[in-house]
Design goal:
Elements (H helix, E strand, L loop, with lengths): L4 H16 L3 E5 L47 E4 L3 E8 L6 E8 L7 E7 L7 E8 L7 E12 L7 E10 L20 E2 L5 E2 L8 E3 L4 E2 L2 E2 L21 E3 L59 H4 L9 H4 L6 H10 L5 H10 L1
Helix pairs in contact: 4-5
Amino acid sequence: MLRNISALWAITLFYFAVGISAHMSMQDPPPINHPKNSFATNANFDYNNPLSPGGSDFPCKGQHLNLDSPAGQPVAEWQAGQSYSLTVGGGAYHMGGSCQASLSFDGGKTFKVIHSWIGNCPSANGETSYNFALPSDTPSADKALFAWSWFNKIGNREMYMNCAVVSISGGSGSLSNRPDMFAANIGNGCSTIETQDLEIPNPGADVNVQSSNTAPPAGSCNFGPGLTGPGNQGGGAGDGEHRSGQSSTPADSTPTDTPIPPVTTPRIGPPPVEGQPPFQPEPPVEGQPRTPDQPTQEECRCSAEANYVPGNDWPDWFNGAERLHPRVLQVILVQLGLFRLVPLVARYLAA
């Protein structure tokens, strides 16, 4: 009855951490109708949740429609060419992911990327700030939509997007050479890969690469001007690398010639005897079992894999959950609101 209780305990902890805790949202600048926005006329307490899987509230969780209302007043005054920061916060950062900062000057019809963070975004629960430069070619506007978008690494395949209203001065450009904001996991035929940080296909000229465990999106994705599909940018470039004013495509991808060491084949059978033909193993006879000197591919494993026992790398506090009675575990599931897991646990323990 108590077998594999650690695995069930892991499921409980995972669902509690990912499924019940609040997610993340942009805290500063405060989005339209965010509880922290002093201009909010109808505070939206759903901001920490992702966009609808079908994209019905894309973009901006639908709050871009309030741009011309009293709730759509600018919460920050920015100047083109200067540096600023955005702050995100919440209770479930899903082991990070990839984020983008974008601007819209047409009421949310299009968004142009001004900075991307690939991996480690967000980097922890609570509040975390990220610095970026407002490009010098940013157009001036009394009201512009500043968007933070996020693709989580662990958990359901989701897209988060919050939009704040800012005023911008001192600019005269158009950001026309900047890529469009990337969108996925909203019913548009494009999705991200779980357990890997999204390798944004066209992150723009200003990007922080903070992960080497990246993967391009899957499906029918819009990769922006000049890009035809995943992989155009290449893999992550290591923690904290910042590229500014450079193309997101590697300058030179020509492989270098590296000598390949010779492969040494292990000798089979007895050592050779001078004057006699070399040893030739007899092929197995169909329908007869293999002899000990003819191991199957399944038997040829590395010692590390062969000696691995599931659970032997778990910490002591985690293995201690084996002493938890199954009935107690089911009660905990009910208290956490994980009702759908109760029959699953019961069937698993009865097997």
